[in-house]
């Protein structure tokens, strides 16, 4: 019993953190049917995130097949050194160096969407703002005291907090970015693309499973009708 209580005490804060606590999360509105978005998300992840973060429970070949990318193109764009197309998608940074540079080893992100949720990832990537007190000069509204630099800063710019007064007199804190190569709408799409790729990575068979589910329901419905008719045939003399 004591061990169970200790486990619950340890687990509850973890679940609260994973769900985002009381932090307002923006809706990501991810569409896994949008293959073009998933392809862009893969490209953005590989070029901006994979240097530190891995998706080591995914294989290059499986991702290429699922996202409609030719294997030759996948190999040319994303494989390095002696990496083979059938290998896992690991990052290149040594763990000891990563721990030294960032204070901790950057986590694998294959399942981050299943742990945190798509809205959390989307809001996190949009939540960076300027904070000179932090080692990398930025903080995050979703993950305070974040240890990760703003790797998409060249695209978004450096967001700063601004207080905007609403018509009813209330004040709302917003983030306004300047100096980036993309507009706010374009950056939102970049973040949505990356989030979509991570949602896919966490559950690659989601669309297939959902499609199969409709066939199963259809079979059960037909089976129910046949069972009902068979029951009436067996019991017709009784009634």
From TrEMBL:
InterPro entries: Cyt_c-like_dom, Cyt_c-like_dom_sf, Cyt_c1
All residue ranges annotated as the Cytochrome c domain in the record: 36-198
Pfam families noted in UniProt: Cytochrom_C1 (PF02167)
Membrane-traversing stretches: 212-230
Species the sequence originates in: Shewanella surugensis
Entry keyword set: Heme, Iron, Membrane, Metal-binding, Signal, Transmembrane, Transmembrane helix
Signal peptide stretch: 1-18
Name under which the protein is recorded: Cytochrome c1
Gene3D superfamilies per record: Cytochrome c-like domain
Subcellular location as annotated: Membrane
């Amino acid at each position: 019993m004591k061990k169970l209580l200790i486990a619950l005490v340890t687990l509850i804060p973890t679940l609260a953190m994973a769900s985002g606590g009381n932090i307002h999360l923006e809706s990501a509105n991810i569409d896994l049917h949008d293959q073009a978005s998933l392809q862009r998300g893969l490209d953005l992840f590989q070029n901006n995130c994979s240097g530190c973060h891995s998706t080591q429970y995914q294989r290059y070949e499986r991702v290429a097949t699922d996202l409609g990318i030719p294997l030759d193109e996948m190999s040319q764009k994303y494989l390095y050194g002696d990496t083979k197309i059938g290998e896992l998608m690991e990052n290149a940074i040594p763990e000891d160096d990563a721990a030294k540079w960032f204070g901790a080893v950057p986590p694998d992100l294959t399942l981050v969407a299943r742990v945190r949720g798509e809205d959390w990832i989307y809001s996190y990537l949009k939540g960076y703002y300027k904070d000179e007190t932090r080692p990398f000069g930025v903080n995050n509204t979703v993950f305070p005291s974040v240890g990760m630099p703003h790797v998409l800063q060249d695209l978004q710019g450096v967001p700063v907090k601004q207080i905007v007064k609403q018509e009813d007199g209330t004040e709302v804190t917003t983030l306004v970015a300047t100096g980036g190569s993309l507009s706010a709408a374009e950056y939102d799409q970049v973040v949505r693309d990356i989030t979509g790729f991570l949602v896919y990575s966490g559950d690659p068979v989601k669309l297939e499973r959902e499609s199969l589910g409709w066939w199963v329901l259809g079979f059960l419905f037909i089976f129910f009708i046949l069972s009902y008719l068979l029951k009436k045939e067996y019991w017709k003399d009784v009634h």
